Amino acid sequence: MLENTALTPQEVAEMLKVAKNTVYELIKRGELNGYKVGKKIRVDLKDVENYKNKTKNNKTIQSIPIKNDSLPSTNIFSQQDSGNVNNFIICGQDVLLDILSRYIELYSPNIRTFRSYVGSYNGLLALYLGKIQVATAHLWDGDSGQYNIPFVRRLVPGIPTIIIHLACRMQGFYVAKGNPKKIQGWEDLKRHDINIINREKGCGTRILLDEHLRLLNIDGKSIKGYNKECFSHLAVASTVARGGANLALGNEKTSLQVKNIDFIPLQKERYELVIKKEDLDKSPFKTIISILRSDEFKSELLGIGGYDLTETGNIIAEL
Description:
Blueprint: E1 6-7, H1 9-16, H2 20-28, E2 35-37, E3 40-44, H3 45-55, H4 79-82, E4 87-91, H5 95-107, E5 112-116, H6 120-128, E6 135-137, H7 149-155, E7 161-176, E8 198-199, H8 204-215, E9 229-230, H9 233-241, E10 247-251, H10 252-255, E11 261-276, H11 283-292, H12 295-304, E12 315-318
Parallel strand pairs: 4-5, 8-9
Antiparallel strand pairs: 1-3, 2-3, 6-11, 7-10, 7-11, 7-12
Helix pairs in contact: 1-2, 5-11
């Protein structure tokens, strides 16, 4: 069964957005169940999900700081921290944000940058509640065909905001190598011989899928595997590669990291940063814009691949 899928420590690290050594430490402390297969450590997918559920706090959005294992373990979403410009919290899941965080601390060493790996929907909600300084979004509205602007208006009401472009990425289907099911596009989700692995509610990829299902008048519950969720592009791609599903939705960059899958491009998405307008002239935010527009930052992303940086650093909208 899918929940018994065995993961390597590296795959677990990718899912939790932490270093591989942190995974070993969690297993050593008994916080995450692991077992040996010969000399190799393996962790069942269900145990990773159980670990995440145990560490969730229903009152706040959780985050995993990755910059330094010695960072304080206190709740970084406390109201006191959110008002302290030296504790800077960025929501989002793309590695681009890890690189941005490193640049911020390089050019503004007095600022401690924290990363929270939550989806676009919850990130905008946290911005509205004043618990973070920067949200990111790749939320597609099927009625208007627009990215992010309609959702920012609805989820951050009454607060003037600025949307700054980060990058464009290609979203599409992960399928088994050779595409044995001959999957071509969204219409294939109507087929009864297809089973999928889904992303978690609130992330931009899940909302993209649900919007297309709505427009095609497809009930998600009619799709095999619709209610089975993973928390990263890598996790769903790995599931398809191991035969746990015929199809998953994710970005092209991740498909290049996983063996035995093909990528079917479907839609270019806009990945963008959202801040409060009142913060635009404050030092950390000006630093972010300068970094995004710098050749050094763009060159590093070009080296990784998978990003269209044509508009990076441009202010897209003032709402």
